[in-house]
Write a structure and sequence with these properties.
The complex is a heterodimer. By secondary structure, chain A is an alpha/beta fold. Chain A contains five helices and 16 strands. Classes of the chains: A alpha/beta, B alpha/beta. The complex binds flavin-adenine dinucleotide, flavin mononucleotide and FE2/S2 (inorganic) cluster.
Chain lengths: ~240, ~300
Amino acid sequence: MYKNDIYEILENRILAKDVYKMILKGETKYIKAPGQFINLKINGCYLRRPISISDYDENTITIIYKIFGKGTEIMSKMNIGEKIDILTGLGNGFDTSLSGQTPLLIAGGVGVPPMYRLCKELLKDGKKPIVVLGFNSKEDAFYEDEFKNLGAEVYVSTADGSYGTKGFVTDVIRNLKDYTYYYACGPMPMLKAVYDIVQTDGELSFEERMGCGFGACMGCSIQTTEGTKRVCKEGPVFRKEEIIW
Amino acid sequence: MVKDLSVTLSGVKLDNPIIPASGTFGFGYEFADFYDINCLGSISLKGTTKDERYGNKLPRIAECERGLINSIGLQNPGIDKVISEELPKIRKVFKKPLIANISGFSIEEYVHNCEKIDKEEQIEIIELNISCPNVNHGGMAFGTSPEAAKEVTEAVKKVTTKPLYVKLTPNVTNIAEIAKACEQGGADGIVLINTLLGMRINLKTRKPVIANKMGGFSGPAIFPVALRMVYQVYEAVNIPIIGVGGIEKAEDVIEMMLAGATAVEIGAANLVNPYACKEIIEELPKVMEKYKIEKLTDIIGKAH
Ligand SMILES: Cc1cc2nc3c(=O)[nH]c(=O)nc-3n(C[C@H](O)[C@H](O)[C@H](O)COP(=O)(O)OP(=O)(O)OC[C@H]3O[C@@H](n4cnc5c(N)ncnc54)[C@H](O)[C@@H]3O)c2cc1C
Ligand SMILES: Cc1cc2nc3c(=O)[nH]c(=O)nc-3n(C[C@H](O)[C@H](O)[C@H](O)COP(=O)(O)O)c2cc1C
Ligand code: FES
């Protein structure tokens, strides 16, 4: 059986423009795979806010979020020691067994967070992940060093060319070869571009507005080649061949 | 003193009046991952149509100050799969009476679906949803005219043996008139309210948040509207009422029963707190103690 829990904020600090890293102390036993998400009850917001799990250990969960609207703004002002009601271990997550020896991890903006745990697990399995991160500008960039410190090969692109390769993640990927599989998370146009140019098999993580986050309301259902699926339950990660654009 | 929470809906005895509302509890078994759902009085299953439906375009959800707007559009696997696939799954984890929520786009479809579901043993009440604001042609159209409401109720009543409860939309000028028409058509009970038609606009994009532009508004913000309608309908009909709309705590249940509800359904609250129904059931005896209530049935309609 499954339980929501109260988590305590251990850390809540800025990483890049409008991007924050929050470490939460509490139960983590329901988390099963990288790419799963948690759903946070924020005081002052009626619906919960879904945020990917970036990393976790026996008693802490790390998330990275960007101020987008009301809820994430409130989160950014929360103090160490404050408590949050959270549902954890939601969604399916990435399938690390399909990665092959040198998988590409492709992420844009706040699609970057779940890739951190994924990268860690792939490295632990003896794989050689290649990480491609895309941001709008240098001031938006985060976590390049963290991925490097794990021991991964890392490339960064910025749309305005202020850091790394000028352009999009796909401009980096064009010059890479011999990768075996891909994992992607980021804004919809990025996912579509990746889907179109990367030839290997892969899986992509989607976002959708959610009523519940655990499969009860059908608010997040998308059509796939295997029928209707809920982004919050059968997703947020879908295999390339399931996707209908 | 042990409190008596049991209530009876047209001969169907429930251990307590707490029923998750249609569309907010899937086909029930999702919630078995959270707690033992056998603590519930019953469950109203997801609105079911004849054919499988994907539903409306995304986004289908918009947050509001004290609630949400949904425009699911009756996504469901269709009556045959509900019977062959969903009911066996819920049967495994829930041993109590179930309520089927039946939708349609024509009288023939309502009749077809109700006739089929009527044969399912665990379905002890049929809830006729003539109030969905999220589908064109049908849905709410049957619930906004007394004549149409009566006609569909009569037609379904002819082919069913189980108690028939008609679920009404609040998007009308005279709710009592519609409820009376259903009673005349043979309804065994009334369920109200479904969602209020509402909308939100995204300030950044200057476009409606919901792809379908409008959707059904529910959650704690609508409680006073639901309560008022239950109160009005209680004075108009002599059949039991299931009160729905904005309930999120045990006090709301007592208030709804004082207005005239025999049982209540909990909708949006399940989405933001999956334990909502369980917590309300656990709180009820304490709140009853506070307000000196021994038996819940003693307070039904006592505000009149
Ligand atoms: C599975 C999943 C994982 C996510 N992981 C992250 C992450 O790791 N880091 C991060 O910064 N963001 C992530 N997001 C996006 C994040 O959920 C939204 O940015 C956030 O909900 C916005 O809330 P708000 O109150 O600030 O914005 P508002 O615009 O005020 O929110 C209004 C409503 O819209 C919803 N909403 C708005 N944007 C989105 C969106 N993109 N996706 C889903 N719902 C949205 C909100 O949840 C809320 O219900 C994820 C989304 C999903 C679905
Ligand atoms: C996501 C969602 C889906 C719903 N689907 C249905 C449905 O299929 N059939 C139905 O009769 N009512 C449906 N409803 C309406 C609820 O059952 C209930 O009548 C309404 O939400 C008011 O209660 P609440 O304020 O407690 O949510 C739905 C409501 C929500 C929020
Ligand atoms: S958000 Fe409710 S089913 Fe996915």
